[in-house]
Amino acid sequence: MIDHASLLAVLPELILTAGGLVLMLVAAWGGDASSRVVNLLSVLTLALAGMALSTSLANGPDAFDGLVRADAFSAFAKALIYGAAAAAILLAPRYFSTDGKERPEYPVLILFSSIGMGMMVSAGDLLTLYVGLEMQSLAAYVLASFMRQDVRSSEAGLKYFVLGSLASGILLYGASLLYGFTGTTSFDGIAIAMDDGVSKGELFGMVFLLAGLAFKMSAVPFHMWTPDVYEGAPTPVTTFFGSAPKVAAVALAVRVAVEALGPAGLDWQQIVIFVALASILLGAVAAIGQTNIKRLMAYSSINNVGFALIGLAAGTPAGVAATMSYMAIYVVMTVGAFACILQMRDAQGRPVESIASLAGLSQSRKGLAAALAIFMFSMAGIPPLFGFWAKFLVFDAAVAAGMTALAAFGIAASVIGAFYYLKIIKTMYFDEPAAAYEAKGGAVENIILTACAVVIVLGYLLNPLLDQASAAAAASLF
Amino acid sequence: MDGFPILSLMMAVPMAGAIACLFAGASTARWIALLATLADLVLGIILWINFDQAGSAAQWQFQEYAPIFGRFAWALGIDGIALMLIALTVFLMPICIGASWVAINKRVGEYMAAFLFMEVLMIGVFTAQDLYLFYIMFEAGLIPMYLIIGIWGGAERIYASYKFFLYTLLGSVLMLIAMMWMVHEAGTTEIPALMAYNFNPHVQTWLFLAFFASFAVKMPMWPVHTWLPDAHVQAPTAGSVILAGVLLKMGGYGFIRFSLPMFPEASAQLAPLVWGLSMVAVVYTSLVALVQSDMKKLIAYSSVAHMAIVTVGLFAFNQSGIEGAMMVMLGHGLVSGALFLCVGVIYDRLHTREINRYGGLSINMPKYAVLFMLFTMASVGLPGTSNFVGEFLSLMGIYQASSWVALVCTTGIILGAAYMLYLYRRICYGEQVNADAAAMPDLSVREIALLAPIAAAVLWMGVYPESFLAPMRSDIRALEARLAPAAPAGDSKIKIGAPKPAGEDHHEESAAHGEAHS
Lengths: 478, 518
Prior knowledge:
The complex is a heterodimer of chains A (about 475) and B (about 525). In chain A, about 75% of the residues lie in helices and about 0% in strands. Chain A has 21 helices and 2 strands. In chain A, strand 1 and strand 2 (about 70) form a beta hairpin. Chain B is mainly alpha-helical and about 525 residues long. In chain B, helix 1 (about 5-20) packs antiparallel against helix 4, helix 14 (about 320-350) packs antiparallel against helix 16 (about 365-380) and helix 17 (about 385-400) packs antiparallel against helix 18 (about 405-430). The chains are: A mainly alpha (about 475), B mainly alpha (about 525).
C-alpha cells in the first residue's frame, strides 16, 4: 500500500518522469523539427519540478519506508541540479544547429538524467542509491556520444561507459559487502550496525563504496576519464557534466558518509582528506600544460571537487553546509564559464576549443572577455569575486574542526591553481589578438552568462540566504 | 558629520567612475577619472577636517556598520593612522591619473577603470573594521594591479605580472587561515575587538608568522622583495607610483593594525628576526641600488631599503619608533611616487630607463633638475624634507631597543645618499654626451602641476610634521601601551637627565619615563 505522503514526497521525480515520457513521444513523432518545442517544454518541466520541491519537503523527510529521503538537503541539491540541467538545455540549440541538426532527444535525455540525480541525492538506501546512479549514468553515456558521427564524441561515450561500468561494479561490490556485514541496505540501519565499532568487512565495503562514488565525482585517483570525456563530448553536454552530475555525486557522497557511515567517521575522514588534497594538487598541476579549454575545465573540475571535499573532511554540520555552498557557487561559475566557451566560434561559426584562439579577445569581444575573466578569477578564488567565498567556507569549516594543517596545505595549493586561470586571462588581455571570433554571441548564451557574472560579482549579498539554506540542508543530515 | 557615511561615499565615487570609464571613450574616460579622483580628494580633505584629533576623542571615528554579508559585515571606521594613509591615497590618485594623461593611449577606458577600482580597494583596506572585509579588500587589489602591469607594462610585463600576483597571493592565503582561527577563537570578526583580545602566546607565534608571510611580501622585506623590482620596472609610471606610494604601505599598515596589537608577545619574541631581515635589507639593497643601470630598478631597491627603516621603527615598540615608521611611510609614499614621476617624465621623452642614455639635463631641463634635486634630497633624508623626520624618529626609537640595529640601519642613510646622489649626478650633471637627451624639452605645465603639489607636501611634512603626527599621536600611544608589557628590554639603557630649570616633580617623571624604555 503506497501512501499519499510518499507519492507527494517524490513529486518532483514524478513530474520529471511524466514530462520526460511525454516529451519522448513528442520527439519520436515530431522528429527534429520539434526540438525547439521539446527544449522549451523540458525547461518548463524542470521548473515545475523545482516548484514541487516545497511540496516534497512538506511531505518528507522519509518516504517509502525510508527508501527515499525528501529533506532540506535533497531539496538544496535538487534545486542546483534542476537549475544546471535547465541551463544545459538552454545553451544547446545554438551549438547543435551549426551542423544543421538539432535533436529533440537531447533535452529528454537530460530530463531522465535529472530523475536519476534526484534519486541519488534523496537516496536513503543503497538500492535507491544504485538505481539513481545508474539512471543518471545511462543517460550520461548516451549524451557523451551524442554526436555519433564524430569520432571524439563516440570515443568519449565509450570510454565513459566502460570506466563507468567498472566504477559501478566497484560500488556494487562495496554495497554488497556492507549488506553482508550489516544485514541491511538502509542507511540508518548501516549506521546502527556500525555503532558498535567498524569491522574489517564493513571497512572494506566502505572503501569500495567510496571509490565508486569518487569515480562519479571525478576525484583523484578515479579521475582519469574526466579530461577525455569533457573534451570529446559536445560542449553543451560538457556543460552539463561539469555542473549537475557533479552536484549529485558530491551530495550523494556527503549523504552516504554522514548518514550511513557516520559512526565510521574517523575512517572515512582519512580517505576524504587524501582524495581532497590529491584532487586539488593534481587538478592544479595537470591543468597547467593544457592547450584545450575543455580539458582545462576538466582539470579545473577535479580541482574544485577537491576543495568541496575539504568541507566533508571536516565532518561537521558547518563542513557539510560549506560543501553544499561550494557546489552552489561552483555550478554558477561553471555554467557561466561554459556559456563563454560556447561562444568561442570562428568567423564561420564553427566551434573552437584551443586556448590560444582566445588571444586578444579583450579587444575584439570586450564583454565576453570580461565575463570569462570574472569566472576565471573567481575559480582561482580571488576576492571580491564569489568563488573566494566558496573556498573561504570550506577552509573555515576545516579550521573550525581543528584541521588547520589541512586548511593551510589546501589553500597553499590553491595558489598553484591560480596560475592556470591567470594564464587564460593573460591570453585574453595581454597577448596580441589572434583571428577574431564571430562578432556576436547568441542571446540565450549572453543572458545566462550575464546572470552568472552578476551573481559572481555581487554574490556576497546572497550570503545570508545561502548560509541559511545550506545550514538547513546540513542540519537535516545530522 | 554624524551618521553621514562619508567612508562609503569615498569608495562609491571611484567605483561609479570606474564603471563609467568602462563604457566611455578615451578622452571622456580621462576626464571622468580625473573628476572622480579629485572629488575623492575633496572628500578626503573634508574627512581630515572633521576628524577629531583631541586626545580625548574616540579612537575610531566615522564608523559605519551594516551586517549585509552574513558571516561578516560592511564595517568601516578610521583612526588617525588610517586617516593619514587615506589622505596619502587620495592625494596621489589624481596625480596618477594626470601622469597617465598622454602616456597611456591604448585601452584608456579600461586603464582608468582599473585605477579607480584600485582606489576603491585601497580606501577599503584602510577603513575596513571587519577582519574578512579587510582581507577581501587587501586581496582584491591583486586583480587591477595584475591587469595594469600586464596590459600597459613594458617588455617583460607578463613575467612581472605573474610574479607579482602569485608571490603576493601565496603570502596572503596563509594569513587567511590564521584569520579564520582567530575568529573562531575570539568569536568576533571586528578588528577593534580583536586588537584587544589576548591570544595564547604560544599560538601567537604561529599567527604572527602567518600574518608576517603576507605583510613581509607586501612590504616588501628582504628576502621576499624580489617581485618588487620586476613589478616596478615593468609597470607604467602611474602603476609604479601607486605601487610604491600606497600598496607597499598596506604591509606596514598591516603590521600596525594586526601584528603588533594582536600578537604583542609574538612580536616581541620575533622582533630580532624582523630586525635582522631589516638590517640585511638596508645594507644589501642599498648596495644593490648603487650598481643599477636602470633608473626604475634603482628606485625600487631604494624602496626596499626605506621600508626596512619602517619595519625597524615599528618593531622598536615605542612611540617615537612607531611614529617614525608612519612618517617614513607617508614621506616615502610621496617621495618615491615623485621619483617615479621624474623617471616617467624623461622616459616619455626618450623611451629608455638606462641611466647612461641621459646626462647633463640641468642644462636643457633646469626646472626638471630643480624638482628632481628636491626629491633626491628628500629621499636621502635631508633635514627640512619629509623623510628626515621619519627616519630620525625611527632610528631614535630603535636605538632605545637595540643600539646595534640602530647602528647598522643608520648606514642606510649614508648609502642612500650615495646611490641617490650618484644617480642625480649621472642624469642631471656632467657633459651632455647624448644629443637626443640634450634636445629634450623642459617640463610641461601638466608635468609641473603633477610634481609641484608633491614638492609642497614634502616640504610641509619636513618643516611642520606636527600636522601629520597630531592625528596619529593618541592612537600610537594606545598601541605603545598595548605593547608595553611585552616590549623587549633595550640595550641602550637611556637615562634621561634632569632638565635644568625643571622642578622636582618633573624630574621624577622623566626618570620614570626613561626607565620604562630601559
